[in-house]
Design the sequence.
């Protein structure tokens, strides 16, 4: 059974810092890995999707990497801003259209 | 497009009552998903549909839970009878459904927060 773990569970940083969120998964047989953002009281918003054959994806200040063989992914956020405060979830697609989510990292960026 | 629409946003009910959650997916999306999010178990897939047909309901916790998709623009998740342990946030999501699924992004609704007293 696929298990997805995210470390740390919570992170607090001052504005402007670069930071890294970690995600690990137990079964490397995945279609893709996705990073989502969840704001309080709202649904999830997709940030980045890395296909199993890819190593990384970038969008603005966000960069996600994937090392399928070791079962790891990182989400790098450059020059963090208070608006980045949210919970970040990673998910792996294990079967066709089936996502298994991690437990999330709650990020707080202070002005 | 208005995105995925869910109703109600909040539902408070008493144990034993029937609860119906509703979802309108994004127009043109072929896949619809129901998830449940709790502090203890995180976000879990309950069931998903392709072209209105249930494909995988292995995540549905008990027979008290049922889901339908009578047409491409509407789905319901029903709990009958409800129990306090069903209290959670229920999300609906949809995706366009490309070949293989490797590039598909799921678009989530705002969720329904269910409290069963």
Sequence:
């Amino acid at each position: 059974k696929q298990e997805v773990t995210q470390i740390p569970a919570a992170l607090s940083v001052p504005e402007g810092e670069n930071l890294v969120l970690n995600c690990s998964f137990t079964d490397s047989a995945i279609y893709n890995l996705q990073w989502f953002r969840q704001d309080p009281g709202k649904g999830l918003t997709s940030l980045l999707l890395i296909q199993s054959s890819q190593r990384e994806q970038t969008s603005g200040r966000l960069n996600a990497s994937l090392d399928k063989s070791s079962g790891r992914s990182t989400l790098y956020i450059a020059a963090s801003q208070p608006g980045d405060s949210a919970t970040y979830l990673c998910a792996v697609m294990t079967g066709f259209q089936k996502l298994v989510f991690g437990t999330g990292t709650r990020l707080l960026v202070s002005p | 497009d208005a995105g995925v629409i869910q109703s109600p946003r909040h539902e408070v009910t008493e144990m034993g009552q029937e609860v119906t959650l509703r979802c309108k997916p994004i127009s043109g999306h072929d896949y619809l998903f129901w998830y449940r999010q709790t502090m203890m178990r995180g976000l879990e897939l309950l069931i998903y549909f392709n072209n209105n047909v249930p494909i995988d309901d292995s995540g549905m916790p008990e027979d008290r839970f049922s889901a339908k998709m009578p047409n491409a623009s509407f789905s319901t998740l029903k709990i009958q009878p409800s129990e306090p342990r069903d209290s959670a946030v229920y999300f609906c999501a949809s995706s366009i459904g490309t070949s293989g699924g490797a590039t598909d992004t799921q678009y989530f609704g705002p969720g329904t927060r269910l409290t069963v007293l």
